[in-house]
Amino acid sequence: MGQERAYWLAWSQISGVGPVLLQRLHLHFGTLAAAWEATPAELGKVEGFGFQTLQKVVQQRSRLQPEQFLVQHQQQNPNFWTPADADYPRLLLEIPSPPPIVYYRGELDLQENLGQKQLVGIVGTRQPSEYGIRWTRQISTALAKNGFTVVSGLAEGIDTESHAATIKAGGRTIAVLGTGVDVVYPSKNLELYKQILTAGLVVSEYSAKTPPDRTHFPRRNRIIAGLSRAVLVMEAPIKSGALITASYANDFGRDVYVLPGRLDDYPSQGCLKLLSQGATPILKELDELLKMLGAIPQLDSVEASPSLQQQLPLPILSPELQRVMDAIASESLPFDFIIQQTGMSAGEVSSALLQLELMGLVSQLPGMRYQRC
Q1: Whether residues 128 and 210 fall in one domain
Q2: 109 and 240, same domain (yes or no)
Q3: Which end of the chain is more exposed for a tag (fewer CB within 10 A), N or C?
Q4: Residues 324, 352: contact at Cβ < 8 Å?
Q5: Cα 36 from Cα 28, distance rounded (Å)
Q6: Could you tell me the pTM of the whole model?
Q7: 83 domain residue, yes or no
Q8: Where in the sequence is the domain holding 248, given as residue range(s)?
Q9: pLDDT class for 316, splitting at 50, 70, 90?
Q10: Residues in contact with 333: Cβ distance below 8 Å, sequence separation at least 6, in sequence order
Q11: Residue 194, φ and ψ in degrees, nearest 5
């Protein structure tokens, strides 16, 4: 897994190869280490690898030694996940464009990464009304007191209010940045940033010292939506970035809730549009909202009891199938980790997993992850 981690990092440095193309590479070759050694002709068989992209890969790959680069990169970026890591956030693996690198600072809670704790995104305008601020504080406080983790983007306005109210209520919050995790933007949120580091986590797909850039923030919004089981839009004009987050949430199969506003309120025009498209309104009775959010199932929250497991003994398997089966726990594991655990080749593991799926013993989850049935 350590070797594969270096290759996720290395491939992320190649211009023109984004998250979607990396997913295709991984699926095609089984590992990114194998993709790194592939010839241009072999790479050209992967959808999206045109002539110009292949040229960039050939030129840039020759100047990069993945394992050496990993060591150098960790000097300024000590904490990050790749999809090869078992504790990479599972919900992010479900989206079509999971970031190849997720940098983080703060206090970890692996239950969040494993999908065993509910994460709820709160987004909205940078210029909220008193009404939007009041309800953001009330809802964030209620979520915090009921054990939810609040995810937002550390921007001015609704984001700031949601982080601050969550911390004040004693809850956990995650800030997804459009900068490096060591760069605070806007700078006026420096104190809030420090509080988040002690009461939650700061994450980003951008390496240390990356300054703010207008192109980063729309991309950042897909991570807010990807991490969250549901997204709450508090106030949003028609051209608000919060609508981008809501659009991603819809694409990713997340629930979208909206704070209703008056027809002639400018900050509510985007919210009204979302309501007309089928988003769920947030009503005054917050108990109903909490009940709906709490009803979203957690990942791997139910395990078979020992008695049930005794009733369903495993059939006699060939040595190869048994080795793969032994490597897979009740919780889902990435394909690369299974390869490492078994010591088998990617092709052998892939073939074994397919046979185990056909036997009803293993199921495949999004992001090339597998778990026992």
Answers
A1: yes
A2: yes
A3: C
A4: yes
A5: 12
A6: 0.79
A7: no
A8: 102-294
A9: confident
A10: 86, 327, 341, 369, 370, 371
A11: -65, -40
CA distance 303 to 306: 9
Q: How many CB atoms lie within 10 A of CB 148?
A: 24
Distances (CA, A) of 121 to 152, 176, 356: 6, 10, 37
pLDDT in tens, 248-264: 999 998 999 999 988 88
What is the number of residues in the chain? 373
Q: 175 lies in a domain?
A: yes
Domain count, the chain: 3
The Cα–Cα gap between 2 and 335 comes to 14
Cβ contact 112:106 at 8 Å: no
Q: Which amino acid is at 367?
A: G
Identify whether 299 is part of a domain. no
What digits encode the pLDDT tens for the residues 294-306? 866 665 543 333 3
